[in-house]
Write a structure and sequence with these properties.
Elements: H1 3-6, H2 13-33, H3 63-74, H4 96-108, H5 119-135, E1 149-153, H6 156-171, H7 176-179, E2 185-190, H8 196-203, E3 211-214, H9 224-236, E4 240-247, H10 259-269, E5 272-276, E6 301-304, H11 306-309, E7 317-321, H12 324-331, H13 341-345, H14 364-399, E8 403-410, E9 413-418, H15 422-434, E10 441-445, E11 448-454, H16 462-482
Parallel strand pairs: 2-3, 2-4, 4-5, 5-6
Antiparallel strand pairs: 1-7, 6-7, 8-9, 9-11, 10-11
Helix pairs in contact: 4-14, 5-14, 6-8, 6-12, 14-16, 15-16
This protein binds pyridoxal-5'-phosphate (PLP).
Pyridoxal-5'-phosphate binds next to helix 6.
């Protein structure tokens, strides 16, 4: 049968094998040559859309043609997150074992909503999350051996929403899920907290007006005294404080909130403490950064993203609770069609009750592959490398007459700026990113514009960071000369 005659039928196992081998070859070549592409896609809005037909094809097409169109029309619109010259935002790094684990998961096509719908999907996840808890030095209460346990969410945003909902139910005696929140519940975060907390408050019916953004101290961490004062003011006004989100590694500058102090306050006030360690949590694998997790014994929930800095491709957030019953009682709904003996025995975990959607992917497979392929020692090695490279970059900034450090460098992030002012720095980052040779992002630190260089890509080596610094210095000189 010719390719055209075959088009429209299911792909048979032999064609799948042939195309699958070719696709893996394509991905291996991509990984080997990723530095040849402009890191930030140079396309303008509409460029990709204009290449695409307005409707789906009536008849099936040949797979080779689809791949050819992918290379011609889609690839130019890719920003190459896996380039070793990608230094923007926080990383979303990946690795061979993770990609292959993800492929295996796709091939198995498991939907693991219940233990019954794939016992391995649930039991592997429980065990792997216990491994990770112990690797990160999390309190034992967050493991399945204690009263709590871990679950993989798609993102830190979902983890925060689940934590907020469970906190809302605990605070309302499980009435809010029946009648809606009472309008008096108040949540707290800092002015530096990730926007996902705001989004969660909007979704959970807490209301943005009932989220207090507590000011920060000089180091941009939450001011625990200001938090205590605000809680007291709210109580005096007849409101009901119920939830605090503290961050280990804020998005802008990797500031670390004082978890022990905030935790003691939450204990005393009976508030749910959620700790968001989206990227920085990974560093706690290394003993020398384990102190990041001090105070977690006070926390009710915790999350971090292996899909940021632990070589596990998006999406994979590890979310832990200290009391699994509160979470499952918050999120469970059991229609007749999902009833089964295993669930009713009470002997199994049904992860559908630990998350917002019903269905769930077999994400534990890729995480298991990563942990086994690298081992804890391998992961530590790479994390230490990244942190060492960031320290070297910070030294170059300190030694420069033209640039300065804009916030205390932490772990793998350096916030810095040219001394020539905000407009110059804006022009600098724009020119650098348009060069295609690296990708940096920016933030503001106390209203001052600065550049961020975050080192977390799997294959970033000293040569890439040194090349980035030469490019930054050289581009700044050109701009200063032309200005
Ligand atoms: N929390 C922090 C501190 C973050 O930096 C981010 C994203 O960078 C998030 C939460 C949101 O992560 P996600 O994309 O997994 O929802």
């Amino acid at each position: 049968m010719s390719n055209n005659e075959k088009a429209g039928f299911h792909m048979d196992p032999e064609e799948f094998r042939r195309q699958g081998h070719a696709l893996i070859d394509w991905l291996a070549d991509y990984a080997a040559n990723v530095e040849q592409y402009p890191v930030l896609s140079p396309l303008v809005p509409g460029d990709v859309a204009n290449t695409l037909p307005l409707s789906a094809p009536q008849h099936g097409e040949d797979f080779d043609d689809i791949m050819a169109d992918f290379e011609r029309d889609i690839l130019p619109g890719i920003t190459h997150w896996q380039s070793p010259n990608f230094f923007a935002y926080f990383p979303a790094n990946t690795s061979g074992p993770s990609i292959l684990g993800e492929l295996l998961s796709a091939g198995l096509g498991v939907q693991g909503m219940l233990w019954l719908t794939s016992p391995a999907c649930t039991e592997l996840e429980t065990r792997v999350l216990d491994w990770v808890a112990s690797m990160l030095g999390l309190p034992a209460k967050f493991t399945s051996r204690g009263a709590g346990g871990g679950v993989i969410q798609d993102s830190a945003s979902s983890a925060t929403l689940c934590a907020l909902l469970a906190a809302r139910e605990r605070a309302s005696g499980f009435q809010a899920k029946r009648t809606g929140p009472n309008g008096r519940l108040v949540a707290y975060c800092s002015t530096e907290t990730h926007s996902s907390v705001e989004k969660a408050c909007a979704i959970a019916g807490i209301g943005l007006d009932n989220l207090r953004k507590i000011p920060t101290r000089d180091d941009l961490s939450m001011d625990a005294d200001a938090l205590a004062a605000r809680i007291a003011t709210d109580r005096a006004a007849g409101l009901q404080p119920f939830f605090v989100c503290a961050t280990i590694g804020t998005t802008s500058t990797l500031a670390v909130d004082p978890i022990p102090e905030i935790g003691e306050l939450c204990d005393a006030e009976g508030l749910w403490l959620h700790v968001d360690a989206a990227m920085a949590g990974t560093a706690a694998i290394c003993e020398e950064y384990r102190s990041l997790h001090l105070g977690l014994d006070h926390a009710d929930s915790y999350c971090f993203n292996p899909h940021k800095w632990m070589f596990t491709n998006f999406d994979c957030d590890c979310f832990y609770v200290s009391d699994r019953q509160t979470l499952t009682k918050t999120l469970t709904i059991l229609p007749e069609y999902l009833r089964n003996q295993a669930t009713e025995s009470g002997d199994v975990i049904d992860y559908r009750d630990w998350q917002i959607p019903l269905g769930r992917r077999f994400r534990a497979l890729k995480l298991w592959f990563v942990l086994r392929y690298y081992g804890i020692q391998g992961l530590k090695h790479h994390i230490r490398e990244h942190i060492g490279l960031a320290a070297r970059f910070a030294d170059w900034i300190r030694a420069s007459d033209d640039f300065e450090i804009a916030a205390p460098p932490r772990l793998n992030l350096v916030c810095f700026r040219h001394r020539a002012g905000d407009d110059f720095n804006r022009a600098l980052v724009d020119k650098l990113n348009r060069s295609g040779r690296l990708f940096l992002s920016h933030t503001t630190v106390r209203d001052v514009y600065c550049l961020r260089l975050c080192i977390g890509q799997t294959h970033t080596a000293e040569s890439h960071v040194a090349q980035a610094w030469r490019l930054i210095e050289g581009t700044a000189r050109q701009l200063a000369g032309s200005g």
